[in-house]
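Follow-up to my post from last week.
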Amino acid sequence: MSEKPSPLFTFLGGNEGPWKVLRAEAVLGKKLPDFAFLNILPGPRESHVSKLATWRHSGAVSHERYVLRREHEELVKKQEGLGRPQATLAAMILISKTPQWWAFSQDERRKIFEESSEHIAIGMRYLPAVARRLYHSRDLGEAFDFITWFEFAPEHSGKFDELVGLLRQTEEWRYIEHEVDLRLIRA
Amino acid sequence: MSEKPSPLFTFLGGNEGPWKVLRAEAVLGKKLPDFAFLNILPGPRESHVSKLATWRHSGAVSHERYVLRREHEELVKKQEGLGRPQATLAAMILISKTPQWWAFSQDERRKIFEESSEHIAIGMRYLPAVARRLYHSRDLGEAFDFITWFEFAPEHSGKFDELVGLLRQTEEWRYIEHEVDLRLIRA
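User reply:
Got it. Predicted complex:
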């Protein structure tokens, strides 16, 4: 049996952390409580309860849910990792999808996600400028279904806005009922 | 925004609970610690830490991952729910899949799961005799990736053994690296 690394990470909003919040916007639904800095630490929510934080949310780095093998190969070829020195800006986008979305079967969700909304194809156009990591939170009973974390250089800030603008016009986004968009800079 | 019910449940093995363990077998890999009774309670692991238990494992009831709409419709038509009075026997099957499985893309996993292994089609033949609920645990950082809970009447015990026997011969099962099979009876 393979050793299992923990898939869990906890996002902590408070008075300290390597990322400083530039702005926080509720695109749809309630906003987050105010905080000035963000920290992302390995481990479940309970391992960080002692830390001073005004906001806490956990997520799991997990396997891909909709990507096909040929898409995966293309993504791997084009994308770069987090932590690049020039990528001093970040975005944390939190979303929850509607009960109707979750009641769809796999083929229906894939069809909306890619064949209609081109979520993967659109994202691909912004590689390698925008690096990305998805955290799954729905099965953890958290407030949001997903947190997507993006890192990019200041000169790609406009490109990133274009990317989220395109995604928000898709059919997939009709199934989003809560969305918060935070922009951050390395502190 | 819709109110989100918690998807989490915790399995507690110890000296009390509505299900009595008849036998526990490690099909592949390590067995569980010994316990005589099992309880399944709503909520995350941390909400049950005060309870006396020799074994504890949480899981989330989540959306379907491989089932297509037409398969879903057929399942819904044929399956019955948990808690039927005549279904006095249960099985709890815990499995973890290999890193290779999780590195596959969605189309590769679906192909092995159904087009090769006929996981859904085989299960369908045992409906409505065998009722079933799947709990997802991998993203929670738990020891097993899944717990599947089955309930059936004593006269369908042989059928249930046939079902798990068929599944264990499939291509999908080559990607299973840990499997424990517990049989239980209503206490």
